[in-house]
Amino acid sequence: MKTLLLVIFTAIPLVYCSKQSIRITGKLECRGKPAQFVELQLLAWGNILGSAILAENVFTDADGYFDISGYADQYFTISGRLWIWHTCFFDASVQKDPCKNWLEFKVPDDFVSQGAIPLLTWPLGFIDLEKEQRNEHLDKCQ
């Protein structure tokens, strides 16, 4: 009986899960030049079952532009996060490789689409990585 109840309560949320997707575009710059090959990751953050990676190993192009998207099957509306790891420090004399700054942006709920293909795009716009940002942390130092 306990096993049957466990199966039922585990299966119900899976039946009602839906595909949700996010797409973000933007341009990154460092010291007046395009921030080339900056690492990006898109996540569905903080649901009951933990976080899900929607897209990883995505990088800006030679002109600093990025276009990142992904989807997940979730019961609740996903809370999207864009993570950016970069080496454009506002005080380059203090912080050097292999350290990276980690920058996080919360995706507005209005830009979460139903379905595996995003119908909406969050235009993050232009970001100057040299300027100190809110939600920025020093990370990946060895």
Helices and strands in order, then pairings?
Blueprint: H1 2-15, E1 18-30, E2 33-34, E3 39-47, E4 50-59, E5 65-74, E6 80-86, E7 100-106, E8 113-114, E9 122-128, E10 136-139
Parallel strand pairs: 1-9
Antiparallel strand pairs: 1-2, 1-5, 1-8, 3-4, 3-6, 6-7, 7-10
Helical coverage, percent range: under 10%
| Low-confidence sequence ranges | none
Q: Quick one: overall form?
A: globular
Order of helices and strands: HEEEEEEEEEE
CATH topology: Immunoglobulin-like
User: What is the count of DSSP helices, taking H or I runs of 4+ residues?
Assistant: 1
Share in β-strands: over 45%
Number of strands: 10
> How many structural domains can be distinguished in the coordinates?
1
What is the CA-based Rg, rounded? 18 Å
Report the top-level CATH class. Answer: Mainly Beta
Overall residue-averaged pLDDT value: 82
User: Per CATH, which architecture?
Assistant: Sandwich
